[in-house]
Amino acid sequence: MLGIGAFKQRLPRPEEALPGRDTPLPLHNVHFVNGQPLQGDFAGLQVLDVGLGCFWGAERKFWHLPGVVTTAVGYQGGVTPNPTYEEACSGLTGHAEVVRVVFDPAQVTLDTVLRTFWENHDPTQGMRQGNDTGTQYRSALYCHTQEQYDAAIASRDAYQQQLSAAGYGEITTEILFPAPPFYYAEDYHQQYLAKNPNGYCGIGGTGVSCPIGLDV
């Protein structure tokens, strides 16, 4: 018999997932920190969606990265359309908490973005990140081009060697191309730690360096 909360350690079957809604959640399309749009066509830029635990602290890591134009948080990789935060946290949508990273490849390389991803969480923990437990906290890379996917796989394999040497287990990161639908989270989650400087940040890495993207 499964213990309390054990169902949140597995993704829901389609018939178990919450129905969601047809209408996206309202979005104030302005980045609280830099004034850039959160949503757009982003011509000439690259978009990569990353899940590395609670999206509050994860987003802050990326908006501080030089060459990143804008960031937004949302839900991705599940079944339920346009979920709310409470629904995602229920374990019945299948979504991960993710950060949409929009970056200028002329200013920062894809490898550097990937290195920032790997080094700021523990990608070997399965359906959790630190004390945050549940499918929404799983490690994920959702790629928008074949180049991104190939680079993500290569970076995973390179980092696995370093993690194994340091005594860590197998990387559990979900790497997908094409990227599944991205649903923007509620306004109050966008750039949360800029709006709430003393808010919770569960982000933390293994201390093991990733041997890619050493261009900055």
Automatic annotation (TrEMBL):
Gene3D superfamilies: Peptide methionine sulphoxide reductase MsrA. Keywords: Oxidoreductase. GO terms for molecular function: L-methionine:thioredoxin-disulfide S-oxidoreductase activity; peptide-methionine (S)-S-oxide reductase activity. Pfam families: PMSR. GO terms for biological process: cellular response to oxidative stress. GO terms for cellular component: cytoplasm. InterPro entries: Met_Sox_Rdtase_MsrA_dom, Met_Sox_Rdtase_MsrA_sf, MsrA_MetSO_reductase. It comes from the Bacteria. Its EC number is 1.8.4.11. Residues 50-201 form the Peptide methionine sulphoxide reductase MsrA domain. It catalyses: [thioredoxin]-disulfide + L-methionine + H2O = L-methionine (S)-S-oxide + [thioredoxin]-dithiol; L-methionyl-[protein] + [thioredoxin]-disulfide + H2O = L-methionyl-(S)-S-oxide-[protein] + [thioredoxin]-dithiol. Signal peptide: none annotated. The active site is at 54. Has an important function as a repair enzyme for proteins that have been inactivated by oxidation. Catalyzes the reversible oxidation-reduction of methionine sulfoxide in proteins to methionine. NCBIfam families: msrA. Belongs to the MsrA Met sulfoxide reductase family. This is Peptide methionine sulfoxide reductase MsrA. It comes from Stenotrophomonas terrae. The gene is msrA.
